[in-house]
Structures are given as structure tokens and as C-alpha cells.
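Lecture notes, unit on protein representations.

Consider one protein chain, 136 amino acids long.
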Amino acid sequence: MTKLTLGSYPHMLGFEQLERLLERTAKTSEGYPPFNIEQTSDQSYRITLAVAGFREDDLSITVEDRQLVIRGRQRDDGSDRIFLHRGIAARQFQRTFVLADGVEVGEAVIENGLLHVDLTMSRPETVVQTIRIRKG
């Protein structure tokens, strides 16, 4: 059985980078922390991550190479507490979301253990270009 790639379709030129992005995204599908993605209007979205136990200073949000990267790292408070049972893990995470051209990251708000990141999508203008044909 032959694996079909975007490059195997002759009318889809220049989509090799998209194929690499899809493969990279599929490899980073860790389950922590859980998240929701909702469409809040025709041109906006909201990503919500469950980040209970993380403070604002423990989180970072960056856009790197058209990817939204959300990282969390809890700091050890340094106290000499003695746990009889430790069921709440203090662990770090990294969640990556690939952004299409025209998607901009807006406000980020943390409330009640949930981190909300708002995204807006601008619609590209329709461009019609006429190519002049010259004699060779």
C-alpha cells in the first residue's frame, strides 16, 4: 500500500511545509493538561487549558514559527512539608497549536484554574492577478 502525501497530488504545489506541520503536530499529542477549543464567533476562537495549581508566573505563552506554544512549570516552594500521600503531581507541560496564516493571538486570562487564550482570524483579501503572456 502506497502512502499518499500532499506532494503526490500534482495540483497542490508548495504544500510540503503544511505536510511537515501536520506530522509534527501529530507527534506532540500528549494528554496533559486537558484543553478545549471553542469557536466564539465567525472569526474568533478560544483555547482553554485546565491549569489548576499553576500560578500566572508559572505559565508562558509564545508564538514561535506560526505555532502557539503554552508552557507550564511549577516551582518547588522549598518548604519542608511532609506528605503522607502525594496525589497531585507538580509537573511541567508544553502544549503546541499550529496557527494558520492570518490567525492572531489575543488576550490570555487565567481564572478558577483555567487558562483562556483568545485567537482571531482575519480574512485574507481576494487577489486577482493577471499574468501577461509574452512571445518567446
